[in-house]
Amino acid sequence: MLAKNLSERYTLGFGLFQGDTFVGWHLGQQILAGKFEMTSTGILEAHRRRGLYTALIPIVLAHVQSEGFQVVFSRHNLTNNAVIIPKLRAGFVISGFEVDDRFGTLVQLSHYFNPLRRKVMDVRVGQRKVDDETRKLF
Fold it and tell me: Which of 14, 90, 100, 108 could cysteine-pair with 96, CB 3.0–4.6 Å?
């Protein structure tokens, strides 16, 4: 179903508020039939380090999973631990690295909703050995 939308890609955007105070935003978009990119999320400096980003991640994941996406993807500067650590704790895995002329060295993070697909990713990166379930996929 999501493949039909590629000419009009699914987007998600909203502001973050504490009461009436604007504290940040999230923007994301469909990049492939079943893949959603968390493109831009920001927390205003005065509101950082209060757990807002950590609280936001499961909200975005639940929403895009309910829309049928299989993978959530994001890219971050390699030194942006304020974002990388909460995402790893939320079940994202490192899925690649990139050098970009605008942003420098980036780490790619992916969250897989399908447990078997995540298991295959773990096999591909050497964190898990091939077992009966994954053997038939290779």
Answer: 108
